[in-house]
Amino acid sequence: MKAKQSWINQFDKPLTIAGPCSAESEKQMLEIAERLNKEYVQIFRAGIWKPRTKPNCFEGVGAIGLNWLKKVKDEFGFKIATEIANANHAKLALEYDVDVLWIGARSTVNPFTVQEIAEALRDTDKIVLVKNPVNPDLDLWIGAIERLQAQNIQNIGAIHRGFSTYKKTQYRNNPQWQIALDFMDKMPEIPMICDPSHICGNREGLFDVSQQAYNFEYDGLMIESHNNPDEAWSDASQQITPERLLEILQKLEIRKSDDDGTFYHSQLNRLRNEIDETDQAILEAISQRMNIAMQIGELKKEHNVAVFQPERWKQIRENSVREGSRLGLSEEFVDKMVKAIHQESIAHQNSIMNKENSL
């Protein structure tokens, strides 16, 4: 296996990048930097330009924020980081001696944008991190890394921030851990950082996602931290105070590779995580099926049609057993599963039929 790029070795503990989602004022930046614990946080981050989904939202303070970032570096000794969304951002960040530049998920999805940024950064010795694209496309993510490598950029890392999904889940961006793990298998030399703030979209899940990342031997975390999270100008719900950040970092268990069975446990964790994600998808699919069954129940009620339709049930059962057999599932298992789902659907439709008749 290829060794990790050497830039990651300058950090004694797992790398932690922290700071506000957006730079709002010089005072805000300096207060956050002062409150961050430098034993646990090595890099101070802040969004200077903020690509937003809709117009007429706060889209960052712009280049003036680079002065504030530099002041944080000068006064507190942090390395500093910000997102660059185009070639002009890249050039400005280099002018202000920003140590770490990251390409955001909306930029990674566009090869033309990544190419322009890569050319603007050609031969730089700065650390350049690439967030996964918004859509679950491993090749796009790897392709962005390769574009940087083609421009003789040596210090590169990846950031796993989860993937957008149309369906609402417990996450703002579904982690789909397997995609990140596949990336790590294909490019083991590229350090992997987890961004639990954007995966969760809330404060409550940050510890669990961070611990999961360390269970998979990620190289660090990027967590948004604000001096007054509830009043933040962007992504308030997912930001935490520097003090809460320290509590999380102190509680995390760091996993290290060695010869005492860690590889077995690492692989086991990966497979178990695949099961968890698959189970979640199954439950979401069943929930969607029940919603459709309830719509059918409303239609049957409106037209005074009986809930149970024997011919339709026979067709469902036969189709499911046949398809299950094709997929390697036993007839007994499929029959039990389909019966349970059908009974739940019948119960939902009965509740619709009876709701106006109940006292």
UniProtKB/TrEMBL annotation:
It comes from the Bacteria. Residues 262-353 form the Chorismate mutase domain. Its EC number is 5.4.99.5. Coiled coil: none annotated. Signal peptide: none annotated. It is an enzyme of class 5 (isomerase). Pfam families: CM_2, DAHP_synth_1. PROSITE patterns: CHORISMATE_MUT_2. Keywords: Isomerase, Transferase. The keyword Transferase applies. This is chorismate mutase.
